[in-house]
């Protein structure tokens, strides 16, 4: 448990007063409701590289029952279950400022309401007391977190890219762009298996962040354009934002935990087992993190080594700037600052961290906490200006820091088990043949399996003995129902679900049966049953009307060749 002392150290932020210009609009069921900024009393905002979460509260007067002219039109739609969108803009108002070339640039957030709170203020006690004002509270976040946190799809895609998958699920409220080679690579199979009934289910937002993390990608939210981008690397370009030394009270540096383990890639494939180590200059023996594979393809092992090597990034120190004033131009995640180019910082009465003096830095977090000086509702509070007491903090990292900052997430659980049917293109439709697909690049053999649940899409599963010993060669036959385990990029057969035509025997004989061949009239049957509690062993070969039989039972041996009529 984190100690109270540690929290006090991290949250040692002075408060200051500012006059802020607040614009707030709520859109519920297509209707827009404007709230006077002067009635906004408190707000708390957390901006991260991947999105934001915020909350605020405000008063709305409603005195029509007392012959007033303030009608609260928000009261009814607010209490419905309709989707509520938020549009919030905040900027500082300093009428005495002379720097006209640096006009205030508002913080602009667009999101969706997660939670709502309502308090009604009556003018007196009693059942008939009329309401004179309501205090509304809302918690809201960015679109991806809002929508995808409630999204638990199970979908199969074949010959698609992850870009296709994300585009299929983003809807009309999420704008997502791509600047990555990884997400545009076509895969034979992609399975999104976010089953809601798992012990610890992962939603689509968890899946997205897990995918970004495990593929060493970057997920970036653009606050100005209100859009997301998936990228291979952090952007390095852009003009630094002016950061006024009067906006900062002090800095402190934060040193993250350093990875002390050695990653190891373990391939258990018996024909070429291998363990590959990844160097870590800060390793402490015997600490390790193992990644277990089972693949005959050395290229898969090499790709995993390359990925885990890239993911092993030693974190660099970060600088935390504690605010002393609300910035005229709000600094947002992904903005750059360069204190070395501004001589005013030589006059700042605070210690400047070395990382901010070595060159450009990138913002990766902003925290704002505000309280209005007047918490009660006014009879006629109009306009957008109000006096607030604030606390602010800005987090910066060196421009060359490669570490990707992501939210906590639930790891999706694989595999999912569904039913499929074996596909064989050999022989007539009524023949229970088997087929082998050999990959031209890898020379690996596989079955083709049709999945009726998802529009009869066909996936490939390894052509392996499965749960039988190599002594037995009994491939799965055409149209056989099989149990299919689906992973993110692969499928495998884990069970068989039905008997062949004429393969099942009556329970009275307590028999066992081995039926081979393409169909009942082109087959060989080997059976062992009990008749009058005595064993009977029979071999029957059929080819249309040509039948041969060998049967052994108590005191009896039959060898017969005949042509059926």
Mean pLDDT level: 89
Strand content: 35-45%
Unreliable spans: none
Number of helices: 7
Class by alpha and beta content: mainly beta
Shape: elongated
Helix amount? under 10%
Q: How would you sum up the major sheet?
A: 8 strands, antiparallel, barrel
Distance between the termini: 85 Å
Strand order of the largest sheet: 1-5-6-7-4-3-19-20
Number of E-type strands: 31
Rg, nearest Å: 34 Å
Topology:
Blueprint lengths: L3 H7 L5 E13 L2 E5 L4 E9 L2 E11 L13 H4 L5 E9 L14 E16 L8 E11 L1 H6 L5 E7 L1 H8 L6 E4 L7 E7 L10 H11 L3 E5 L4 E5 L16 E7 L7 E6 L6 E4 L10 E6 L4 H14 L6 E6 L12 E2 L16 H4 L3 E12 L12 E14 L17 E8 L13 E2 L6 E7 L5 E6 L18 E6 L4 E6 L15 E8 L2 E10 L2 E10 L2 E8 L2 E8 L2
Parallel strand pairs: 9-12, 14-16
Antiparallel strand pairs: 1-2, 1-5, 1-20, 3-4, 3-19, 4-7, 5-6, 6-7, 8-10, 11-12, 13-17, 14-15, 17-20, 18-19, 19-20, 21-23, 21-25, 22-23, 23-24, 25-26, 27-28, 28-29, 29-30, 30-31
């Amino acid at each position: 448990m984190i100690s109270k002392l540690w929290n006090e150290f991290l949250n040692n932020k002075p408060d200051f007063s500012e006059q802020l210009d607040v614009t707030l609009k709520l859109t519920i069921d297509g209707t827009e409701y404007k709230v006077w900024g002067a009635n906004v009393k408190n707000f708390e905002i957390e901006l991260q590289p991947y999105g934001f979460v915020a909350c605020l509260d405000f008063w709305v007067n409603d005195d029509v029952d007392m012959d007033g002219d303030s009608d609260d039109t928000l009261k009814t739609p607010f209490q419905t279950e309709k989707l509520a969108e938020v549009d919030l803009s905040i900027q500082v108002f300093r009428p005495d400022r002379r720097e006209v070339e640096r006009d205030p640039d508002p913080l602009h957030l667009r999101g969706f309401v997660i939670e709502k709170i309502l308090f009604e203020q009556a003018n007196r006690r009693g059942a008939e007391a009329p309401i004179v004002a309501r205090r509304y509270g809302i918690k809201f976040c960015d679109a991806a977190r809002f929508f995808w946190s409630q999204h638990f799809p199970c979908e199969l895609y074949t010959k698609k890219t992850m870009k296709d998958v994300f585009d299929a699920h983003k809807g009309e409220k999420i704008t997502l762009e791509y600047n990555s080679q990884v997400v545009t690579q076509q895969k034979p199979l992609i399975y999104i298996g976010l089953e809601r009934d798992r012990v610890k289910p992962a939603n689509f937002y968890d899946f997205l962040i897990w995918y970004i993390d495990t593929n060493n990608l970057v997920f970036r939210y653009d606050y100005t354009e209100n859009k997301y981008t998936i990228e291979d690397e952090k952007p390095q370009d852009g003009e630094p934002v002016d950061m006024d030394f009067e906006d900062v009270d002090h800095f402190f540096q934060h040193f993250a935990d350093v990875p002390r383990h050695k990653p190891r890639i373990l391939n258990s494939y018996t024909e070429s087992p291998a363990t590959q180590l990844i160097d870590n200059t800060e390793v402490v023996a015997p600490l390790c993190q193992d990644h277990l594979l089972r693949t005959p393809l050395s290229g898969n092992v090499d790709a995993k080594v390359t990925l885990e090597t890239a993911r092993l990034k030693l974190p660099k120190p970060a600088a935390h700037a504690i605010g002393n004033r609300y910035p005229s131009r709000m600094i947002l995640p992904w903005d750059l600052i360069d204190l070395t180019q501004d001589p005013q910082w030589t006059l700042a009465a605070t210690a400047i961290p070395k990382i901010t003096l070595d060159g450009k830095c990138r913002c990766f977090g902003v925290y704002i906490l505000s309280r209005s000086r007047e918490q009660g509702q006014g009879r006629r509070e109009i306009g957008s200006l109000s006096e607030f007491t604030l606390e602010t903090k800005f987090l910066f990292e060196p421009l060359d820091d490669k570490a990707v900052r992501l939210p906590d997430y639930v790891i999706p659980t694989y595999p999912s088990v569904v039913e499929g049917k074996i596909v064989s293109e050999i022989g007539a439709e009524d023949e229970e043949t088997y087929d082998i697909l050999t990959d031209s690049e890898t020379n690996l053999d596989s079955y083709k399996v049709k999945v009726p649940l998802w529009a009869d899409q066909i996936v490939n599963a390894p052509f392996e003995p499965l749960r039988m010993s190599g002594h037995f060669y009994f491939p799965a036959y055409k149209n056989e129902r099989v149990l299919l385990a689906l992973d993110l990029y692969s499928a495998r057969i884990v069970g068989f679900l039905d008997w062949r035509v004429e393969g099942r025997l009556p329970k009275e004989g307590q028999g066992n049966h081995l039926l081979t061949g393409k169909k009942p009239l082109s087959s060989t049957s080997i059976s062992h049953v009990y008749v009058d509690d005595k064993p009977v062993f029979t071999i029957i070969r059929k080819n249309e009307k040509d039948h041969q039989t060998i049967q052994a039972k108590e005191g009896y041996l039959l060898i017969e060749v005949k042509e059926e009529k």
